[in-house]
Amino acid sequence: MKRTAAALFLLAIVVLLYRKVTRLWWTYDDAWILHIGLVRPWTDAFTQADVWPQKLFTPLLTATYEALMQLAGLHPARWYRVDLVLLGACGVALFAALRFYVRTIPSLAGALLFVAGPPLCSFATQLMTVHYLEAILLGTLSVIAFVGAFRRMSVPLNLLSALLYFFAMLAKEIAIPLPVLLVCLPERALSVRARHLSLHGLAFAAYFVWRWRILGTLFGGYGWAIAPSELPAVIVELPWKVIAACAGAGTAVGFLLVALAALGAAAALRTRHAWIAAALTFVVAIAPILPVSKEMQSRYALVPWLWLSVAFAIGVARWRSGARETLIVAACAAAIVANRQEWTATYAHAKRMSDEARAFFSMDGNAVLHAPAIPAGSMAEYQWLKEEHFRRGRGTSWYYDDFYLCGAALDGKHIYEYVPERREVVEVTARIPDHARAWCGSIRKDAPLRAEFHHRGESLFWKFGPYARGRWSVLLGNGVQAFEVPREDGFRLAGVPRLALRIRYDAPEGWVTYSPEIALDFARQPDLTWHR
Asked: How much is the pTM?
């Protein structure tokens, strides 16, 4: 009865915290994943390399989208309800796994901390991250089956655990290190645990053989590139970035939450085995984040936050009665407050993207959307979904940088943009001619600029100058896409053989200059220097 009540309580908490997600629409990479599911068989994600240009291999994600299209149609509200159920199921599974080792209240507290933690806000508002939740759920069920196999000496349960582990890896690579956790569990002797992992070893090997056969590589990635000289600093900064991501936007309460969780977890570190297990599992929890940690996003903290929530439940169970209940109440209260602070910003951003996407789908061919919050690289996929699948008005365009106004033919166009004060997309055509004349006339066309480009592997590195201060951006398509970038950095561009871009520099004094369009051909000229 207690376990049933605890499970229902966790599901209710998830609904109460994240119920507003059913008001959202498609956001982020949803259109791209829908595109794959609408034009290709679901099996292509498991067998065709061109589905994965970034060399990531998460075929369960596209299979999930395909299944949801069949079951729920293209109705986002229904998809978000499924996402809420999945998030709640993760909490219930975690509670069930913790109950093997600690009593009901500490187990419930650990599961509550997990589902209410600031990192989970992004998972509730981003359908494209459903495969993270699938990996967590399948991985947790694998742990439950593994422990059950030990305690019942059941070969079928051990086989089930290995199969769940295999599918967790197909959902998301974060599940790959799971055997490290399994070998650290306090079940019988280490040699016995290792022997029971033979089936998991086969699952591990099968996954990587499959991945190699499809992609031709064991590793993939995306985002900012890390030069060898940067690696030591990136490693040193990683723990702090993980802590900040776990704390969320409301830093004071968020950091208090992390401190309380760490305080509770500390009580679990009483033996040499506990220290070794904690260290090993922590390393494998944060190691996969390293390649993408230059731009730390909240979803990257999911596994470290899971690690801390589990450690809190195990550690706080060792506290004396009275102090234990006080710490649990304090940590859970801090989690709820930090969640609400993180939720305010996360939901507002997702709602803006939803409103912009809805407006974009209703616009005719003479409409132009200015600087949407939807990622610039995703707009072409939203255009495809609108025009090719839904057969709505063709020709709607967009731009992210006002340089677009200096060359585009705007006669007869209607310009729209999101107005935060009104929380809606409104037409701003009337003010555009005056703004365009003022903006385009203010650009300094002869200001000195310098750019060095170096293409290595599948990464493009750059260094802009001669100014040490100010803000830099890279434009594609004369402002159709724009990305603010550091003065000196690199980005992974898997499968991109050439690129034409324009550099924008914003001086601290307020003036702006642009480079002409610079054509980069990575095969013919991997190193290029341009200056004015």
From this structure: 0.93
